[in-house]
Amino acid sequence: MTTSDDGLVVRGVTKQYPGTRALHDVDVHVGPGECVALLGENGAGKSTLAGIIAGITQPTEGTMLWHGEPFAPASPSDSIAAGVGLIHQEMRLLPDLSVAENVLVGRWPTRSGGWVSRGQMRARAQEKLEQLGFTQSMDVPVRTLSVAGQQQVEIAKALMLDAKLLILDEPTAALGAHETEALFERIHLLKADGVSFIYVSHRLAEIRQIADRIVVLRDGEKVAEHATADVPQDQLIKEMVGRSVDRLFPEVRPPADRVVLEVESLSSPTGRFRDISFEVRAGEVFGIAGIVGAGRTELVRAITGADPSHGTVRVDGAEVRRHSVQGAIKAGMVMIPEDRKGQGVIVPDTIQDNVVIANLDRIAPGGWLAPRKARQTAAHAVERFGVKGKPEHLVSSLSGGNQQKVVLAKWLERGPKVVILDEPTRGIDVGARASIYDVITELSRAGVAIVVVSSDLDEVLGLSHRVMVLSRGTDRGVLERDEAEAARVIELATT
Q: What positions does the domain ABC transporter occupy (predicted)?
């Protein structure tokens, strides 16, 4: 039987920044072998609270106990030494080191003479990663992995700590159903050994599967706490956003007959996908589903010219120049990448700079950029997409959901014919997610051809007119909306 001092106890924690109160008087208790879900919109204070527990941030007020003893980590190393680890949503890996080197970074096994035992390092890393469904080599550089693969490495790195409390910040945001299931199995085993978890996620359907209790934050305050994870999703959404979100997935209208995007016999020279063909009509949302490693991201990157390929891509009947992102953009095709910070936005720059750089050929055709025109373009994009910020604000100051809106805004200002979205709602809250779904619906009704890649099966099924299922780089079938059920998609994705 646990007492109030067992595990982690957070009492009255407040964090004040100049002009902003991130947390106010928050209490949380996590018992041994317990998983507490921490829910809230972006900006609700979840990451701040996680950072305080992990020693990244110092509280303005409040105290913490860890197994009955005062706990006030001054740095992440203090927290790790106490047995508390944090798995970040934004990967913090060393891109040029191998998978094995990243998993055991700082703890590389050595043999006599101080030399690193690479065989032992590979074996230990492989053991952890296989438990998470990771099948790639331990020797490849981390930068060559997909975002999902990097997320698995990040999780394995934390599991190597042998921590007694793990804070998981959106651990499944880039993972598909198969990889998520493997992670949950590992969490259940660790819970049975007394390991505690704080689980941060915007995927509400996961909460019942993994959590014992739920704590909801809004605007830096704890607004609800539930002694069970069996809470109606509508209730959780209302507690998180302060209002009811009646319709998460908008109504899907039939597309037009006119074909806008044609992909014919597209193959990767590295074998990541083979002989892929499909068409997308005006106003159609075409979903692409599959487990990690199926070739989804590689396929859409090739379609937009970011990666080499063999085959043909046409927009409105005109062939798009291969291996050319500029050619794709000129043809009217844009892509919202899955790695928004690494590929979608220039984080240290302003919203205005990010919008302008994607539209220079339109607003400065002669090479001269008029400041007034730049401000007007950025202001229009901010207003149209409801970005919570001004054009002069730095992208680094925005929440994940608003950064994603900036990525959308800068490309959609071009008025494209084809929009490809790779994991459009990865790691963003339910309120921002609903607004992005509304943007997709608006584009569909305007006759834009849309391709959506998502690891969230509910999302790809809820948005799409048709769904193509990839497995190991091959097309396993295209399902119409009325036959695209979750069980059927998973069956095809795992064959």
A: 8-244, 258-495
